[in-house]
Amino acid sequence: MKRWPIVTVIALAMSVRAVSLMSQVEAAGTSSASAATTTAPATVPATESLVEIDNFVFKPKELTVAVGAKVTWVNKDDVPHTATSSDDPRVFDSKTLDTDDKYSFTFTKPGTYKYFCKVHPHMTGVVIVK
Ligand SMILES: [Cu+2]
Questions:
Q1: pLDDT tens, residue by residue, 10-19
Q2: What residues have their beta carbon closer than 5 A to ion ligand 1?
Q3: Ligand 1 mean position to 117 CA, how many Å?
Q4: CA neighbours within 13 Å on the CB side: how many for 126?
Q5: DSSP state at residue 45
Q6: Which residues contact 74 (CB under 8 A, 6 or more apart)?
Q7: Which residues make Cβ contacts (< 8 Å) with residue 99, sequence separation at least 6?
Q8: pTM
Q9: How far is the CA of 81 from the centre of ligand 1 (A)?
Q10: Are 71 and 63 in contact, with CB atoms under 8 Å apart?
Q11: Mind listing the pLDDT tens digit for each residue in 17-41?
């Protein structure tokens, strides 16, 4: 009968130790997860997207990119085109692109950026920045 309290104390001590070990593991898991979150943006490569102007069409007509993405338009037609922002004031304007000419613009703010071709205003496209 005298030994019961000792066994109880040992068992209690062991269970406390187990709990403290588990919480250490949880703490370690939490800290490594937050470290991964912190370093994630640095490992994401800078994005670059291409819009081809082909047969009087912007391809793709609708492009979704991340903030900070660079979009490049290239004229694959044998007639001149532009990629010109529809906003006032204009966010970007490629000026006249002759065959195989390229124009790039980096989108630094989220938004919906409609654009058209000044030579052929029926040609339209949109870049969605998220
Ligand atoms: Cu055009």
A1: 444 454 454 4
A2: 81, 117, 119-120, 123
A3: 5
A4: 9
A5: P
A6: 50, 51, 52, 53, 97, 100, 101, 102
A7: 75, 76, 77, 78
A8: 0.65
A9: 4
A10: yes
A11: 544 444 444 444 444 444 444 444 4
